[in-house]
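Case study 2.
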Amino acid sequence: MKNDTDKQREDNASTTSLGELARLFLKLGTIAFGGPAAHIAMMEEEVVRRREWLSREKFLDLLSASNLIPGPNSTELAIHIGFERAGWSGLLVAGISFIMPAVIIVTAIAWAYVEYGKLPEIAFILYGVKPVIIAVVLQALWGLLKTAVKTKFLAVIGLVVLILSFLGINELALLFGAGGLIALTEWIKRLRKSVETSHNSFLPVIAALLQVAPATAAAGFSLWALFLFFLKVGSVLFGSGYVLLAFLRGDLVERWGWLTNAQLLDAIAVGQVTPGPVFTTATFIGYVLAGAPGAALATLGIFLPAFIFVGLSGWIVPRLRQSQIMGAFLDGVNVASLALMIFVTFELGRSALIDPLTILLAIVSAVLLIRFKINSAWLVLSGALLGFIMSRLP
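Prediction:
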């Protein structure tokens, strides 16, 4: 159930100017280290708690919609927010603004890589940034969980999804499984004969999305083949940066020989240690293979499907909420999405909290966020500065 504050936010909702959207998502694209979970947490802080553009329930619904389509989830969430606040123009402005800082940074790194034959020393930044990100994500999870876990049954479903995620079960199966189970429960309770059709309606949609990919069987390199390959990746890929690694290796390294294993690993590393979407790995690969034109086409190819899918699905979410059965489906997906975020945060914590200093930094960041409401952007920048200082100590 929505509380009075959430209802008032939606009742008083107005469109957001394109300038406001651009400023927010350019900032987030510049400081959003830590992968999709961290990006989502920062967006929640900005658009729900600080600006009150969306209620938590609406934010969760948009997050679920992003998880149910292929492509970079946090980028798609940014696009959804832009579409919600300013229509089709907002969709383009929010998405491009979130992607562009990472594209510029990754292109600069790719230039240095091609020029000097190795990656610049940038990993030290993450030493100070990752502990801050842990605190940011935990704060967002706390607020979102209070909204998403509406019943004890939803809490149990979330716990089961969390356990299964640790066992390595496919994340898309968990999302659809949780949503389907809650929808089925609602169907049984209400005895509606038409629910089965509604419940299964997502499956042909996903099947259709998986058929969108164009064929790129030719082994010879060309700019057109590069664009089509990354268009395919952006059209069908669910999952994390590790799934992206396996996907890219099969074609670029093993089948076509466009890259070496070392080059591919360097590309993935750049996507992980720079702010913004991990999918800017494509920008790096495109530059290594064909300079600036290759970087531009690879970037366009991998991100273009996200804009199309969000544009096609953006109008569906509010209509789903009008159906009690499909609303229950979204409730299940919301809880499963947060369970997956908890799992990702745990994995990030294992690599981030490696010594007493990083543990202390995470604790101090959490206190500053929760008690003193410090903007996470300042904490992320402070963490990066600390990482730089530590890298210069003997």
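Residues 7-12, 192-218 have pLDDT under 50 and may be disordered.
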